[in-house]
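Q: I'm writing up a methods section and want to include an example of the input and output format. Could you take the sequence below and give the corresponding predicted structure tokens, formatted cleanly so I can copy it straight into the document?
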Amino acid sequence: MGFSGISIWQLLIVLAIIVLLFGTKKLRGMGGDIGGAVKGFKKAMSDDQMSEKEKSEQIQQSEKNTADNLTDTEKNKDNNKV
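A: Here is the clean output for your methods example:
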């Protein structure tokens, strides 16, 4: 293939050397650790997105409540004038 890429045979040789150096048991443990880290990262990202969504909903609710309170205050002023 030349300089442009790595052939499948080269990848297999590298994989075989890695298995010989670390052993399958250690590689399985490392794979589990990496999988756990990825799951934790995804969970943290989804929790962060949910908290942002909840914050925006709370802001919208508070703005609505503020507008309702202003309207009620104006009605009370009108009633007191009468």
